[in-house]
Amino acid sequence: xxxxxxRAKPAMMFxxxxxxxxxxxxxxxxxxxxxxxKAPLATxxxxxxxVIGIRREDKNRWERRVALTPSHVRKLIKETGAxxxxxxxxxxxxxxxxxxxxxxxxxxxxxxxxxxLGIKEVPIDKLIPNKTYLVFSHTHKGQSYNMPGLQxxxxxxxRLMDYELMVDPATKKRLVLFGKHAGYAGMIDGLHGLGQRxxxxxxxxxxxxxxxxxxxxxxxxxxxxxxxxxxxISDQGLPEAFAPMVFTFTGAGxxxxxxxxxxxxxxxxxxxxxxxxxxxRDRYNxxxxxxxxxxxVGAQDYLERIGGGKYDRAEYREHPDRYRSAFAQKIxxxxxMLVNGIYWESKYPxxxxxxxLADIQxxxxxxxRMLAIADISCDIGGSLxxxxxxxxxxxxxxxxDAINGVEHKDIEKPGVQINSIDNLPTELPFEASKHFxxxxxxxxxxxVMGKIVTDPVLSxxxxxxxxxxxxxxxxxxxxxxxxxxxxxxxxxxxxxxLAGSGMVSQPLVDYLSSTKDTEIKIASNDLNEARKLAHQxxxxxxxxxxxxxxxxxxxxxxxxxxxxxxxxxxxxxxxARAAIRNGKHMVTASYISEEMQNxxxxxxxxxxxxxxxxxxDPGIDHxxxxxxxxxxxxxxxxxxxxxxxxxxxxxxENSNNPLGYKFSWSPRGVxxxxxxxxxxxxxxQLRNIAKGKLFESKFAQVPLFKGFxxxxxxxxxxxxxxxxxxxxxxEMDTMFRGTLxxxxxxxxxxxxxxxxxxxxxxxxxxxxKTPKEIWNHIFGVSKDESLLPKDFMELVKRKIGLPxxxxxxxxxxxxxxxxxxxxxxxxxxxxxxxxxNIQQPLVAPTTLDAFSQLLQRAHKFEKGERDMVCLFxxxxxxxxxxxxxxECSSLVVYGDSETGETAMARTVGIPAAIATRLLLxxxxxxTGVIRPTIPEIYHPLIERLEQKGIRLLLDEQILIVGAxxxxxxxxxxxxxxxxxDGAQAMRNRKRRALLxxxxxxxxxxxxxxxxxxxxxxxxxxxGNTLLLATRKPASLLTNVGVxxxxxxxxxxxxxxxxxxxxxxxxxxxxxxxxxxxTNCVVEQDGLLADNRHVLAQRHNVPVTNINTxxxxxxxMNVIEALGQKNRRRLSRARGTNKSNALAFDRLE
Length: 1148
Fold this sequence. Notes:
Number of strands: 38
Helix content: 25-40%
Number of helices: 43
Strand order of the largest sheet: 3-2-1-4-5-6-17-18
Strand content: 15-25%
């Protein structure tokens, strides 16, 4: 009975007690604390008070056992004076506080320990050289899957000791083991699995009421449940189809004894092997319905001597090759459940082979036999050949269909159920740990007192030390030599330190915690915020972060594999220095500062990667840009222009304030960015915007998508990115990066800038002033004075010098002031009740900081609202044959209005998380301070972003089909036009002829236009190259451009006419046409600007429509203006059969 087993003395729980000699040796106290007499580090003399380390178990989340309990630790410290270090754990059955109370020190780093105690195998990367480790290493039998671990112990000159080898010298019985607890849990789980299997086969049974062992708080609860199941068996009986139910137990050690202890609480009858044939003939006897049958077998019951004769135990031990197993023929055909607890080595015959199991499963009369196996011994590919792997507590059962050679987890499909959990005692962690610690304590005490060499129990447990195998284990050299064929799998969990717990953290942690192999520690100066975030995700915990405390920072960094720094930007270099000191990689989304760049040499020397600028902008924009740039370079092209737009915005439906903008984080960074200077290059000209002039130098229209009314601001220094992206700035016409906002944003903020609200002077500090008081101070208005809208407009006009006709702008500024609570009216105050804190006094170091607080209060996202991010890239690429491609990529992402997760958080947090994962996987080889501008980063990052629903829309590469024309060909085009299909984009003769006809028609129109303008006789030998562009493969003909050559004014007219005609007729990309057209015009030394009146007159369009060369607007206005004259002509042309066929038919 279980209750009786619980009352047994601890020494007897493992069978017979240690011999008197062992007890006497353990009681002896040495006069010296020398652990051994050898010189190397692992065996040097210990200090007077040696240090014991107790490691945190990390094989899986269920492993909650510990080698010594707090009571054992207290006793050890008291009796030996040893220091005990305990690694912190949130899953261990005894919490950290209980060990501290016992006198232990909670310490992550066990490097100061001399002896390290654990339970399961230690991950190779966590092994500390020159230490003594005592664990279940699972190596001394030559287990192939653990040979890499054994080699690591040798390489690191570690003394490895194994609990399995701690045996009584006289009896050879193991002294320290979980054996019975493994038997307890294995039998409980086996009964649970059998109940599930029978139900899947269509039969209810009493076993359906059994749960897995871990659901019971203690063995007393198990005993209660077994009593209940026993009553059901006696009262209602077992399924007749499976009677008699025979439970066969192999082995006679602690494992089997534990299993029998559980089983014996059920109604049963013991039988022998000789009775099995009789049972089969009497199977329908009613007495088998109310009791189970227990068959205990030994080697003599199933082993046969190959040459004939009786079983001889001594001979079998000496010559196992003279024997074979007849278990499959004599016992298995009668067995319902096999409980396997035998010790097996490779020199012995297997209990059952895969062929044996297949033979049984082929017999129809055996369909209700060998239903389940509880393989508690868990020897993979051992006594049961078909037991291929250890199962887990999460997924305890798998099924082997030996007939078809199939292994599966479908409980309803054919196959024997196998339970092979290799850490069964951890399902009963409290009692198992207490029991284990009772057995280990005298040996642990002897180790502390320096008796590893002199004590026979301890010395026998040594497998290797000082880089050499101990004498009894030198035969393992052969196993180590064969290790090359073994696939080594690193099962340890990867560790990430996330410094910072702000808005970007949640999607980052969500991504990283989605795999079970990663542990995340969120370190923040706001511990409660970090805990709140950590509690939402598995394998995640929180810690306090004090970046100024270098010692504590080093402890946090040392225990991780990758650091993710989301602290304020100026603190990133400090985090990076800690990462470099400890040899850890780091990820951050911020720009590379000069201080960070100066760490490049140190990072390279330490083989550390500091990956920066891995968010949205910068981040995704780098990846998108470099993918296109590298692709162009690989085919011999040159990037002649690069235009990038990016913005974090409010979703259009929520842009319901005068700014058209809301803040999901501190607005300070947004405001200070508006004060930055900027420089860029457009159409061959370098442009500079002075500090404080950014808002007034806006691009009023950025027509990226028809559905969005964007404006744009230049983004800092665009020119530096030519070098970052490996481009030649002197060969480029345009290099521009900009920030997107909704139209009207810049005008309002420019007014606030000029009014003084963006003042960063410390003298402008705000001390406990309300928004109205700040306004009154800036304008010199009396505290009690109330402004009417008309008065407000006059004040603003005078203050910032707005010209007449600016009333619309000032009115919007007035409305924004009402939103911010700067100016109050009865109506607006009632509206602002939702911002109850709008008039709370402000304390800020500058006026800009106070203004940022106002923006945060008034323009935060409300519940149910969402944000949006938009990214757009456009490249003009010159090919080796002087043809041009235009390639674009775009990204639009919306936040989730239901969960509150913002698009900005997703597009910053997820790229940073993916980059972290790439570093954890060893996919990034480049070291130093870097950006995601290299293929080993941007290729997998773009791919994984798509898997998370963040997809860059990339225009397909454009193929150019060139047709060279000159004026002679124009005059005689019916006979001399040729289509040069160098790219072989059109192989169909009919379609190629169709294109030729269209070109002839266009040339005819061009010739007629030249005659009408009186230009037909001019410069008849100046060449012009017409470019017909098609997308590949098999897509619409979509784009036409004209090679940029220096020509006189009328040539520009021709170019515009021809380009616009193709653009309309062939549904071309207006951006692509614009790129080539703008380049063409600009390269003619300002021809468009100088001759715009002539050009406009010839095309009957307003002069203002072609008045500027600003980015995007120039190309769009030129195209629109030149198109107005031709719309009627184009409509007629589009109606012809030839043009329709080409415009809407797909090309091969």
